[in-house]
Every structure is written in structure tokens, then in C-alpha cells.
Amino acid sequence: MKLIVNGNAPVGRGELLSLLIWKIMRLTILLLIIALHLSAKTYSQYITIKRESLTIKHVLGEIKRQTGYSFIADNTLLENSTERYLELKNVTMRDALDACLKGLPYTYSIEDHLIIIRRMPSSLFPSMPLQMLVASIVRGRITDENGKALAGVSVRVEGRAMGAITNDNGEFALTGVAENATLIIGSVGYETQKMKTGGKSFLTIVLKTKTNVLDAVAVVSTGYQTISKERATGSFDVISKSQLDKPAVNIAQRLIGTTAGMQAKLDVDGNPTFEIRGKTSLYANATPLVVVDGFPIQGDFNSINPNDVESVTVLKDAAAASIWGARSANGVIVITTKKSAHGVPLRVELSAFTRVGSKFDLGYVNPLASSAETVEYEKLTFNRWGAPVNSGDLMSDYGDQWSQATVALSENYLGHLSNADRDAVLEKLKTQDNRSQISKNLLANPLDQQYNLTLYGGSQRMSNVLSLLFGKRQSNFKGTNASNYMFNYRANANVFKWLDFNVNAMLQYNDMHNNGVTLEDIQGLSPYDMLKNTDGSLTNISQYYWPIMTRFVPMNKFPYPDWTYNPIQEIANRDITTKQLNARMQAGLTFRLMKGLSFDSKIQYELFNTFNRGLYNDQTFYVRNAVNTAASWDQSTGAITLNLPKGSILTQSRTKAESYNFRNQVNFNRRFGKEHEVNVIAGSEVNSFVTQTFGNPTTYGYNDQTLTLGTFPNGPGGTFSPIKDWLGYNQSFSYTNTFSYTTERYFSFYANGAYTFRNKYTVSGSYRTDASNLITDDPQYRYAPFWSAGLAWQIQKERFMSAISWIDWLNVRLTYGFNGNVDKSTAFRPLISTTATPDLYTQDFRASISSYGNPTLRWEKTGTWNFGLDYTLFNDRLRGKVDVYNKKGRDLIAVLSIPAVNGTTSQKLNNAEMSNRGIEVTIGTSLPIKGNDIIWRGDLNFAYNKNRITKLFVANYPAYALFSGGSGAYVEGKDANTLWSFQYAGVYDKQPYVQGAGKDKYNFTGWTPGDGRDYMLDMGTQVAPYTLGMVNSFKLYDFDVSFIITGKFGHVFNRMSFNYPVLWGSRVLPNKKLGEVMNGDPMKIVPLPQNDDEPKFYFWDRFYPYMSYLAANASHIRMQELNITYRLKKRLTSAMHIDGLQLYAQGNDLFTILANSYGEDPEYPMGGMKPQPKFTFGLKLTL
Amino acid sequence: MLINKIYRLLPGMALLTLLSSCDKYLDEQPSKTSSLVVTTTAQLDALLNNYGTFYREGNRTAIYSTDDADLPVDLYNARPSTFSMAQVQFTLWDINNLPDDGRESFWSGEYKKIFNANMALSYVDKVTGTEEEKIALKADAHFIRAYSYWVLANTYCLPYTDANKQEAGLPIKLGTGFEEPVVREPLEKVYNLIEADLAEAQKTPVSLASGGTPRHWRASKAGVNGFAARYYLNRNNYAEALKYANAALAEYSRLVDYNTEMKYGNDGNITINAGTPNAQTVTIKYPYTHNNQVDMTDMIGWKEFLYFRMLNHESWWYIPSKALLDLYDHDHDLRYEYHIVENYSYDRGLIKPAYSYPGYVFFFKDRIPSGPTVAEMLLIRAECQARTNNISDAMTALNTLRAKRMKPGPWVNVSAAGKDAAIKLVLEERRREMPFTQRWFDIRRLNNNGDPNDDVALSRTFYPYNNAQVSVGEPTQTYMLPKNGRRFAAPLPRTEIISSNGLIEQNKY
Fold it and tell me: Looking at residue A298, what is its pLDDT?
């Protein structure tokens, strides 16, 4: 199908607008055509020229424009000053060329998409050099070292203005090349070669990959545009490709240690959280904005196929990030996905890896005292220190989830167990240890598997990338695992010379099973609570005070006679799943309207669906307990009435998040003369994000085979038909659906411009206004303007620098501007929230105050100064940069304590200010040690950040607000992450004391008075001010060895304290610091209570975890990663008919060097989940 | 043609997004269920329907500081860890340590109710809805405010007498903004506000039981009149008090007959002195109202409420004083039988060695009706009539109530020879009927009503104590709260003084 459109184009000097509209209309038809016939030629082979006098150059230019054909022509022709008067209407290209060259000594030939014009070899022109007469056609093929054809390589003839570009097969042809001519062959990423033709008519040329340069980055991406690095004024960091190519479950893992000023912390599953250049907001979201292919995404890093990532740019200062306006104060991470080149043959990449780790170290994640110590401690605490007494009454005490030892002590106290029997029980418990049973039955080796297939390919006008990913994960807990399927497709089509169309599609399915226990479940067990008896049967880890149950409750008369609990049984009999079906679609059009001017229209749509389902069969305690305790039990007659049907319980809910983002942008890039270059973008976007949740009522008596379900035999209860539970209390069952619906909307204008003078001086500026649907009375607060300005100066281009030969490149940058932050939880006015169902007892709908109002509401704003220096020294051997910044946040939202007479004791108000100052230094080198065989490549980054709250009015800081940390502990003049501790003062009169204001001392029985700042100690910041990242790699012949080391220094953490447990409703579980307290000096460490009766012992937990003696140095160095990759030799790969094969082994979280002597990892404190070393084995195959 | 339309639409949309300011697009509310701006009377109605916001009064002064309550030394010695320091301090009218008590919730809770009322008042004229609905909402909100300011003034300020008019009152908040001043206004201004709010509340068109079920969690004519009766009795204005009590009773006068409608609920069974020769299992009998902690059926269904408020005790033990116990006819008074729960101390852990002491139990272990009730109206009527020397009518009112509270028999009907005897009978009946909830307010008015016969001076015997500990070993001492003691104003939480930067001042003692 051919379409002749140029012939119908509206001529004349119509306004830009009508042209634009016309082009868009045309496009719509064309898109349909493309969809049907992507290969159809849409350039016209017919030419219309209506001009008066034109030079040859202009005529050829017009032919090129209208046909899309390129020329190779002799300079002499282009410099020919002959003018033509032409009037052509829908003539063929040959006719046009004939008309143009008429009477001139040139002939032409058309090959593929190339018009080659050469002088006629005629003796009429004696000025022709002699060698031209013997010139001939030279053909050739260009490949890389692996023999892969290289398309798009330019082949030039030295000293002549002629050349060719290789086609898909790497082939080229040059006509009229002198016998002794020299060809210059070069391509990005390859070393430039010179070669004499030597009279040969066919040349085979192998290009060598450039190796002894760092991953040089020519451009940086802000998400809205790409900027040449030379002209960028902002602070950008680009993560190298070699770093991104390593195996990762999640692309964010690849960013750790790579970027100065970006701190990362991984959770136990390897999902990191980032903080760029310190804490910018006290209360609003503190994570950087994540942008994928130009749009902020709503899914996290897990919705990105790590194998698809081409580059990652981190935007740190105002000039770089302020284009993202109200969401950019935390920095922006811009991810660009891989594209295929146009006109390359199909390339296939296949990769697979398995990552395995060891099981949790239970001594670390659940640091309990030994069984013997625990029993002794329970004896010590029993009925002392304010512990409640079990009265033996069913109603008040059946629910005490006490340990076996405490139950034995209590039964003895109540007179049901003799001293000898009690002691026998206790002695037996002392000898039991459940850790190996926990490890065997509840824990698993974490395992990740990933398989990825990517196909690249494209025609001259269209490129395609298709990737398929399958991932499988086993968590640290048995029964909790997930599978992940992801499909990505990206295409880019040059519809016309003036129009590009691109589309991205992502489809993801996650299937997660969450049947396993949580760490909290394990931490709730006494160390002697065995899961299995010696005969292999399951134990009863009772959720009740069992002897009371056996004494008073006819358990076997209840619907389920079995009232026992065991986690192994729970895991086996429940099916808790989360299924996610996520999709992301992007489509964009780029119109090239005139030289340098283009218009982009892009849309992104995301749909994230999550389905949660929990099916518990009646083997689970959950079901048995629910049905049993819901039954009515007449204690006098013994009659038991079922109120819930027997059978499985099913819970279901789902969420749906939908977002769209629509953007229109004008780009203008143009050079004027030799000295002026202008680069401007301006646009607008609208963004909408809707989240809906749906909850189904719990289904009782469900049968998953027959899909039958039960009803409430006696109704759901409530005021008008009350039903009693087993203990005679009224009960009611929920039977309604629940819904929620939230909308976030933004509307933004933005513009960004840069002007470069003489290629040396660049001035840049940006402006953005964001409006959202936050609740406001005054629209001026909606349109918060953010702006930035920057300067860059490439010093080495100055004449005075030419004498300094060791400086290859030197660029200084200076920027200032504002970024914003969103906290939409407050509004000018008080807000309410309403209930979805009428109240059970009054049948009224109810509402409550959800916000007390923030009369100062506005966007948080952070102003940033940044001074930067980029350098390349010693003939590219050393390169890097230095950035110094000063960030000042103002109008930050803080929670302030206000008098309760205002209806609330605290309220979020925009009245805080905070500064972050810092310096970041990056040094990189690439050193060939033995030619191309042994190369060392090293990158080191170092950052320092100092955070300080510069303005915050809080009338008073009670001590508990300070030690609790978080927003309540923000103090003017201090770091936002300050650790506040009490100074322990020792024991007086059998009471422990902390140091108070002046000479006062306060005991532990009540809140300490006055302002905590007067007597609490500032122990330092809890976030490392100094961070270090080191990435080193060695190429050793066919091996690559690389490692990543990260370090954090200069901060403190609160190490684990003894937990001083006292008997209450649950088990008494002293932790392993018990010895520290028992053997400690009571004047130096808080001892156990000295009085038998210590009614306020429960209150001590407001003191003992916050002692200054617990603050420890948090500095550490972490061996983040070690990777060994083997690349199969070329001769082997070509023998196997493959492009390449890599095999690798990688270790992560291998070890940590700690500055504290307590063996506690500051980032994974004792008693929490800590990642164990993980080992990855994998391969990558390219076809 | 569709395609043609799309042609035009595309550039049009592009221009639109470039040029328009999209205010309408941004007017979409962030959420359909939370973070809502109030726009309808239905929403305000929902706000005031939320009895959970309003019905609890954690007034520990009322719980601990009157002669209805006690903490006998023997009881304390039986198991000191059962009793909190705050309990000791409230019992002994402490002024130094209570401001730092971390569990204060009464002051902040009442001001939260006031905020909700102010929210309704500041929006009611801006929202859509019928005039009728708005009148009811306004009256309701004024009522909530009057009620809260009154209980606050009667707890944290000195009694309202001519001499005390310029004493420190309360911060007056009439709007929802934080910029309103927070300084304590003179007591007179607070009372002027209460009376003004009460006058507005009396405009309510709502009848308590108009729909059949009494909707006592919302303001009604009966509820407002009931509170007005309480207010004027407290001001020693017996004529007004009588007028409003009669008005309330005229509208609604259902009483619970303890002979037929009160019953026992689930028992407690506790083994005491276990492991000793004295071991035994004791059954504790509770009223049925004790059964449910969370389920509101019985509480909402309690038919004597004119307005739904309850005293709330976080430590679950209203300890009746010997004096209170002695006021009851142990054999015939059904209030004693059901609400005075024998051996309740066992439930509180005093089982080894066992120490038996009763507890006053109404709803669950923690709540007692404190809002105006039909019973209170009868008692107000009786007192007003007694004080105006209308003794026979006073006795009629009293005996109407007693008939529903006592087993039938000659002990039901009482009679008085003279005015003072009649007043004494009424006041004793008040204590039996409404222990803890009204006693603090009553003592304050009785000491200032010009009648020296009914004055109450408080005193206790207990160990010395400090902020952290009771000095159990040391000799006991006598603590007194004399008739006109300044400690009749409870100390404010210190956090208020600090977070207001000293604008809110502490009571002077």
C-alpha cells in the first residue's frame, strides 16, 4: 500500500498551528496504516519543487527531504554555484535529479537508499586528478571481534568528502575510490581504524571494541529530555552499564554503592530504600521519585525487569531535578530501558541465575536467653514486681497465654500442682531447646531464581525489543514464596521523517503464597516450646491458659473438640495468596516540525490489581477457635449452640490502582551560527491516580471443592437479635462489603531552557508549577512555582588551559533552585471521615474528625545550591567529579504539640526548616595493566552530609518524645536523626534513677518532668554522615572479577538492651542480655527490681531501652558483592554458533566489619531479620 | 465520522492541557470516605451521631476524690501493686504530682468533644440541608459544648460563687481554628457561655423517644431539660431546677424496675488462698450489665438515660467507701444487691492471701451512667421540693424511685418530719442512686449553698507518698480537704501549660 501524501500537502505559509493540526490528523490515518503495513514505504518517490532560483545544493537538499534518500556526493558539486530555475510537480526522483544535474559533468546512481553522485570520468575535465581515472568500486564487510556484522558504521575516504554507511549485513560500497586511498572506519564504542584499500575490491574489516576508557556517558536523561553531558549544569550521576548488567532480582540492588550521596538500605528480601543527600522532609514521603522512560511509575522497582534497564541516572540538585517540581525534593532516579537499534538483525539474549542463602541465624533474629535461664527468670519474676495473679477464674484468666513454666508455677500457686510435680516440669523444660525444630519446620533457605529472554530486532524504520522474565522466590519462611512473570515489549517506528511513534507495554503477574509464619510468631515462643514431640506428633502450644480450659470447659462437646494450636499445622492447612496483575502502557509521538523544533505527545497508563485471598480449612486453629468461641454455651445445662457454621473460612479483598499521565511537550534544539546553541523544552502534563479497595465479608463454612458456604445459623447478632459467644458475651459478625476510593490529581506546567555560547558557557533555567487536588480554599497555594538556574563553564576549552596537557576535560557547574515535596495528609480546614455501614447498635451512620486542619498549608520547598566540578585527567586515566551542596528546606510540615484545648494535642503544620550540607567526591580510573588482557577499573565515591533542623518551634519536649525518635524528636539546631538517651544515674533506695535536670535524679515510676532536652544526651546522628562506595573490577583474560564495598561512618545506633520482661498476658521471654544485667554493676546498668513489689515495673520500658550506655558506634564496612564472570572465548563461541556466553558466580552480603564490639549490625539490629550471605550462579547467552 | 472527530479532538486536547488551568479537574476530592470537607447536614449529623466520640468521661476526680470512694490502708496493704500512684494521688487530693500524670484523658477528651461541637457550629450554615435539620444540629452542638464546659469547670475550677467569679476559669474555644486565644477566661465568662449554650440547646425540636426507641445519644428536649435541671440545682436555684426536672419528666419518665428487669449475668469463679488450707473457690455474682465490654447493646438499651454519658474508669474498680456501703439497706436495696459486687477484690488479684472487698459495678467493670437520667430527675425534683419545704411532694418523688429500686415492703416508702430531715433523706438517696458520678459536683455545691447542715469536709488516713512510691512502712497521716479548700479545683495537666508556652496557667493552691 502506497500513499502519496506530499503531493497533497497544503502549500503556503500557514501558521504553525494549522500545520500542527494537519500533521496530527494525517498521523491518525497513518497510524492505522502502520498497524497494517509496517513495512510500507511512506516516503514519496515523487517530488514537487516550486521555487525560483535554487543552487544545486538546495535542490539536492529538497530531494533528500522529500524522499528520505541520502546522498554521497563530491564536494565540488555542492560548492557548484550554478543556479537552477525549477518547477516540478509530482515528478519522479530520477526526473528531478536529471533536471538538477542537467548540463553538469556528473552522473548518479541509486543504490538502496543512497544516491551516489559522481563526476563523469571524462577527459573533457583535465583538472581531474589522475588517480580518479583509475578509481574503482570498493566493497567490504565490517564485523566486530566476534564476527558479528556491524550496521551503521561510517566508512570515509581520507581527504575526500565521500563515504558510506554499512547496511544490516555490515556491508558497504564506495564508488570512485582511488587505488591507494585510505579508509577511515569508526563507530561509537569501537576503536577507529584506518585502512589502505590497496587496490582490493572487497575488504573485510574487524573493529575492536574500545576497552581502555571508562563507561563514557555522552548524555544524561532527566526523564523529560536528554542533555549532552557537556552542557549539563546540574548534578547528575549515571550508573555504569557494566554495573547494571550484573544479576539482580531487582534493579535497585544494582544501585547500591554506585552513587555518591545516595544511601541505600536493603531489607531482608533485598528491596532497598534510598535516601539522596540526606533527609529533606520531616514528615512527607522521603523516598526518591522513580521515573521509567519519562514517567514516574506507581509500581515499585519490582515492576521493572532488571534485564531491560539500559541506564540509570540519579538527579541530585535543583537544576537536575526541579523539572520534577513538587515531588523532586528527595531526588529523582531516572531509568531508561533498552532499545534496539534500527536495522539490525535479530539478537537473542538468554539469562538465568539461581541465588541461594542460608537460613536465619536464630541466635541473632530471636536472641533469647537459654531455656534454663528462662525458667530461672520466670521463677524469679513469678507473682512479683507487679505481675497480675492468675485467679484461676475462667472468665478473667482463660486467655493468659503463659508459658509452660509459668503455668506450672501458677498451678502450684493455685494449689493444683504439687511442689515436686512443679519442679519436675521446670527441670524438664530447662533441658529443651526448640531452635533446631524451628529451623527445620518453620524456616527455609531463601532462594531466588530468574530466567530471562530478550529479543532485539528491527527493520530500517522500526525497532523492537521483547523480553520475557520468570522469577521464583522462596522467602526465609517455609510456605512463603512467590512467582513472578513479566512481559515487556517496546517498539519505536519512524513513521515519517517528521514523525516517530513509540510504544512500551509491560504486563506482570505475581503469584505469592504467604502461608509461612512471621518472625513475630517465632519470637512469641518460649525457648523450650517444642513444635513436635519426640514421637513426631505435634505439640500443643496453647493459646489459652490450658489448665483452666481443662477444668471448666467441656472442650470435647464443642463443635471442634480440638482446641490446640501448633504453627506447623497452621502452615499446612491454610492457603493465603496474593495475586497481582499489573500492566503499564506508554505510547508517544514525536513530531519534528522544523529544524530543531519538535513536539512530543505521550501518555502512560498503569493498572495494578491485587487480589488477596485467605483460605483456612478446619484443621487450623484459626477456624476451630473461631467456630468454638462463637458457639453459645449454657454453662448450667451444658447446651452448646453453633453460631458459626463449621467448615473453612475464606477471606478476600482486592485493590485496584489506576493511573494515567498525559504530557505534551515542545522541544527546541538549535544552533545559530557557530557560537550559539539553544535548547528549550516546555510542556504541560496531567496526572491522575485512583486507588480503590474492595473487601468482602468473611465467608464461613466454605467448601472449596463444592463452592458451598454456610450462613449464620442464628443471624449476625446485634442489638435487635443479640447472640452470645461461648462465655456469654454478646457478639456480632460482619457481613458487609467494604470500599474505599482515593484520587490524586496533578496538573503541571514546566519549561527548561539552556543556552550555550561558544561551546563553553552554558546557562540553564527551569520553571515548574504543580497543582494538585489537595484541599484548599485559596488556589494560589495550588500553583506552587519551583524554579532553578544554572551555569556551566568548560574551562579546558579556554586558551589558557591548552598549556596544561594533563587536564583533558574540566567543567565547573553552579546551580540554585527549588524542589518540592508532597504531604497531602493535611488540609486548611478540618476534615472528617465517615463510616461505610450504619452503627450496629444505633443504626446511624457515624463520622469522626480525620484532620484538625492546617491553616499554614502549602508545598514543602527545598532550595539547593550546588557547585560542581567534573574532570578528566592524564589522558583519560582518571576521571570524576566533586559536588558541594547546601539544601535548605522550608515550610516543612512538622508535627507540633499544641494545647489540648484545640481539640488535639498535636497537629501537622508547615513551619519547620531544615538544611542539608554536603560534599560528594567521585574518582574513577581505568588502567590497562597488560594491554587488553588485564585491565583494572576502579570507582570510588565518597559523600559527607550534615543535616540540621534550622527552625522548628516546639514548646516542650517530654523525654519520651525525644527517645521515641521520629517526628516527635525533631529539635531545632539538631540533626533530624539524633539519638537521645538517658544518662543512667544508678540505684538509690532500691530504685534505679536517671540523671535529671541540674542535680535532680528521676526514678522509673513515672514520666520524667520538664523538658527532656535539659537532661537527655544527644548521642549523635543515626544516619551515617560519611558514606563510601567502592566498585572495582579486574579483567583478567577471559575472566572479570569485580567487587563492591560500601561503608558508612560517623553515626550511632541503639544496641539491644535487656528486655526486663514481666509477667502479663503473654509469655515471659528474657533475651540473651540477661547475663549482662545479672552480672552487671547496678550503678552502671539498670538491674532487676530490688523490691519484691514493684508496681510500676511495667513502666520501666520507658527507660531501660534508652540508656546512653546502649548507644554504640554504628560505623561499618560491608562486603556488598563479589562477582566472578567467565566469558567464553571467541573461537569457542563461533564454533558453537553463538554470539557469546558468560558464566558467573556472585556472592552478596558476604561479611561486614563492625566498629562496635557487640556483634550487632547497626542496619539490622539484633532481634530483627538480617540478610544472610547469598550466592548466585548464572549464565548469560547471546545468540 | 468518528475518525474525523478524533482528528479534531487530539490537537484540541493538546491545546487544552497546555492552556487551561484545570481548576475543575483539581476539585476532585482526594477520598470518598476519609479526608472529607463537610458539605452536607448529613455529614454533620454523622459526626454528632458518633457516640464513641462523646459518651465517655474519664473523670478520675469523680472516681477517686469523693467520700463515695476510698482506699483503706488495710486494702492497700493487701496488694499494693493493684493500686496505681495516680489512684493514691487523686484519693489524697494531691496537687504536686498529678499534673505530671501521663494518663490524663479527661481534660483533652472534653476539649475534643468541644472541637466536634464547634466543627458542627462553624459549618452548619455553610452546608446543604433543610432548615429543620440545621436547627436540630445547632441545638445539639450547643448542648455538647455546654455539657463539656460544665463538667470541666466543675472539675478544674473552684466552685462558682460570687466570691469566685473572677477566679481562673477555662480556655474558651468557640471555633475550630488554632489562632483562638487559649488563656483561661474568668469563671464568670465560662458560666455565661454555658448558660448561653444551654439557652441555644433548649431550642431543640427533638423529642427523646419520638421514633419509639429513645435516641439518647443525641440531644433531645428531655436531655437538655435534664441537664438544665442539673445545672440549676448546682447553682442552688431550686425553682429553675424543679422547672426543668419536671419538663424532662413530663416528656420521658421510664424507669428500670430492679424487681423485674434487673438480673444477674455471668458469674466469676475464683480460687482463693490456693495451696493453703484455706483454699476455696468463690463465685462472684455480677449484674447482667457486667457481661459485655465491647458490645453496646445493654448500654444503648438502658432506658433511663435522658442523655448518654458514662463515667469511665480505666483501672476497673470503683472502690465504695465504708460510708457509702453503710447507706444502703443491705437486705432490701436491690442496687446494693446488684451493683455492690461482693468479693470483687478477688477479680482484681487480691487472692493470696485473699482480701475481700466489694466493688461498685454497673456496665462491665469500667462504666457508670453519668448523663442525666430519669432517676436523677426524680431526685432533683425531690430535693428542690424539700428545700422549698414541700415535704410531702418531695417524699412522693423519692418513693417513686425507691419503689423501683427496693424489694417490695414497708421499707420502700420513707417520710420526713421536717425540712432538714427531708433534705437529708434526699441527699442520701442521691448517693445510693448515683455514687461516684455526681458526688464530686454535689459536695462542691453543698459546701456553697448557704445551708451549713449539708456541708461535707473530706479527710483520709493514709501513708506518706512521693511521685513514685507509697512509703508503706511509715506511720500513716491524715489528709484533709476542708469545706472551702482550693483543691476543689483539680490541677491541670502540665503538658497544657508547657505546650501553650505558659498562656494556660495552673491553678493556685
Answer: 75
List chain A residues with CB under 8 Å of B27: 773
Length of chain B: 509
Contact B300 A719 (CB under 8 A): yes
Task: Give the global pTM.
Answer: 0.77
Backbone dihedral angles phi then psi of residue B231, each to the nearest 5 degrees: -60, -50
DSSP A1050: S
Q: Do the strands A136-143 and A202-206 form a parallel or antiparallel pair, or are they unpaired?
A: parallel
* CB-based contacts of B174, cutoff 8 Å, min separation 6: B118, B121, B180
Is there a contact between B22 and A552 if contact means CB atoms under 8 Å apart?
no
Q: CB of A834 within 8 Å of any CB in chain B?
A: yes
pLDDT tens by residue, A449-469: 999 999 988 887 888 999 999
What are A1113-1147's pLDDT values in tens digits?
999 999 999 999 998 888 888 888 888 899 999 99
CA distance B470 to chain A (A): 10
Distance from C-alpha of A520 to C-alpha of A508, rounded to nearest angstrom? 31
The 10s digit of each residue's pLDDT in A59-93 is: 777 777 777 676 666 656 666 666 777 777 777 77
* Helix or strand (DSSP H, E) at A130: helix A130-133
Residue A212 has pLDDT above 70, yes or no: no
Least confidently predicted of A493-497, A524-528, A1133-1137, B318-322: A1133-1137
Mean pLDDT of chain A: 84
Cβ neighbours around A186 below 10 Å, total? 14
Instruction: With beta carbons less than 8 A apart as the criterion, state whether A235 and A865 touch.
Output: no
Contact A1017, A1108 (CB under 8 A): yes
Residue position matching grid coordinates 429543620: B132
Cell readout for A1161 is 549490625
The residue type found at B427 is: L
C-alpha cell at B300: 444503648
Question: What's the whole-number mean pLDDT along residues A507-514?
Answer: 95
From A487, A510, A502, A511, select the one nearest A308 (Cα to Cα).
A487
For B215-246, write each residue's pLDDT tens digit. Answer: 999 999 999 999 999 999 999 999 999 999 99
Crossing angle for the helix pair A56-67 and A93-101, nearest 10 degrees?
170
Using a CB-CB distance cutoff of 8 angstroms, which residues of chain A are in contact with residue B498? 955-956, 1011
Q: What is the edge-to-edge ordering of all strands in the sheet holding B310-312? A: B56-57, B310-312, B367-369
For residue A1113, list its beta bridge partners. Answer: A1052
Q: What contacts A793, CB < 8 A, 6 or more positions away?
A: A760, A761, A762, A811, A812, A813
Angle at B495 between CA B494 and CA B500, to 5 degrees: 105
3-state percent helix, strand, coil for chain B, nearest multiple of 5: 45, 10, 45
A contact residues 518-557, partner B, Cβ 8 Å cutoff:
552
Residue ranges, chain B, pLDDT below 50 = 1-9, 11-12, 15, 18-19
List, in sequence order, every residue forming a beta bridge with A484; answer none if it has no partner. Answer: A471, A510
Gyration radius of chain A over CA positions: 37
Residue among B11, B25, B173 whose CB faces A686 most closely: B25
| pLDDT reading at A58 higher than 80 | no
Q: How far is CA A218 from CA A165, A225, A226, A235, A928, in A?
A: 22, 13, 10, 15, 22
Whole-complex ipTM: 0.89
- CB of B146 within 8 A of CB of B197? yes
Q: Which of B172, B269, B284 to probe by mutation at the A interface, max A CB count within 10 Å? A: B269
| Residue B503 with chain A: CB contacts under 8 Å | 899
**CA triple B158-B164-B168, angle to 5 deg:** 60
Asked if B21's CB is within 8 angstroms of A1005's CB, the reply is no
The owner of cell 441537664 is B227
| Residue B353: cis peptide before it, omega within 30 degrees of 0 | yes
Residue A877: predicted pLDDT: 84
